[in-house]
């Protein structure tokens, strides 16, 4: 690039500031400055997602990590946050449904902590607004860490001398429940993750992806319609719209319509506390976002999860009911499972088997390179199950049965990969601490 | 001023109407090859630059054909070309500086001494609307985000339900495209130019690109043109590069930039 130095400087400043154009207030505000972010992590999103005053400090992060790994936060000293969010496993547990104290199964699949800091809301149903709010709830959930109430937690932590010292050092006071959540949240705010093979590709290394993976990226943005909800671009590289959709997952296990009808009644007559218990413990958990908003069209809808690291964070969906990404493709290929609250965007996709393979291959390129080994293992494991396909219904997917709408156009790779056409946008700049 | 030049600067709604009819009635709309601006060869083998009008050209003394101009040389040469154009077309409206207010500035008052063409400003930032006070930017409402996250961000499904955070992400995504367009617009290399000329040299800050007037009958092209057609004409002629595909990311980015520079200007397709 041959540019006069003036332009280069301006561009450098613009690039460095990440948001660049939008963020040049005349007076330098004391806005939060992101730490050094790898490619594939957006500085804009960091600024949007990290509340002022909640920037992670090294001291808080260190204490937070200790607490994250602390089994004594559970009622019988058996379960820590990391029990279900194992850092080595991409902050998940690899199980369909997570297990809390006394081997109790919870109602939801453990979502990864990686990039959770960027979520607009926490939990599959978005019932917590911040990581701090989120961190408290599993400790008190009878099926997860099983502590009866915050006071008991605080009493227990205050009884552990090292924590008394630690909290004094970090917060300047005795342990309390809020500070505990702040520390854990600080640790979680450092778990941003990008640096995937996909990011190399998007930054111009055409060889970073194979032909099959590139075709998967084109299908992702075209025929497979993934980007309707899992849109990603340089500013918002999560591959999630952070909204809630009923894609029919809850509908294949039970008589969903009856359950929904019952649920609507309970929620109309119930009080707040009762509803929270429903979300945590009962079959009504399957009503998802509805329990939070009490809006009927949220029945059975769950948050669109990020696709970053999706290869290593299976099994999939809010209830872990789909074992492999091939199963997930099958689910969407047939337009989900019909129910009265199904999202209007769900329709058959008509994907062929090679196209499904390409899509899965692409999804595995979204894993942070630091999990390369695990990613390869998971891909091999999932591929071994390729012939076990409980969700597959080619008759519906390919339009021989039912009428689930027209197909999106097939990308014509011989012309040009349509996914190259500026959909993703400019590469996320790597920010430094000295900007502006 | 010859007929073609008049057509360039005088409204020619009738012509574009005729063009439209011609298009509509031809059974097989097989586009003819676009007219080419054939540059006269220099006796001394010097580099010849063409102006976007499709007929004005000049030799650059001291630079041989096939050589690339330095940016400074290119700026001097293009300024001279633009001066030539303004002398030929003293009545032409010149949208001096982008922006709705200044776009309506009166044309140069005297016919005899048109003001020199504005000089490119190499260090200029994309002037978009990124620092519009009170506008939407990455930081807009950021303070409210923590509070907002406590309320129910969204009910319902995909459409019509979005949060302020969404809007901020969208605004930034658009600005990223505009920024990339600004880069390409100012970068002869990125444009694929072979002589060192970039868009900003004749259109500083996107001035005088009047994107709001497309589609319109473009005389140089002899057909109804979209903005991207004219961008490609400029890439082929003054810039001396290869035309970009309609969907090329650079083309998309430049359209984003050029339109962003004219925010607020009334749409007037077909206007000359």
Automatic annotation (TrEMBL), chain A:
The keyword Glycosyltransferase does not apply. It is found in: Cell envelope. Its main location: other. Residues 381-412 are annotated as: Disordered. It holds the Pfam family CCP_MauG. It comes from the Bacteria. Keywords: Heme, Iron, Metal-binding, Oxidoreductase, Peroxidase, Signal. PROSITE patterns: CYTC. One of its GO terms (cellular component) is cell envelope. This is Cytochrome-c peroxidase. It comes from Corallococcus carmarthensis.
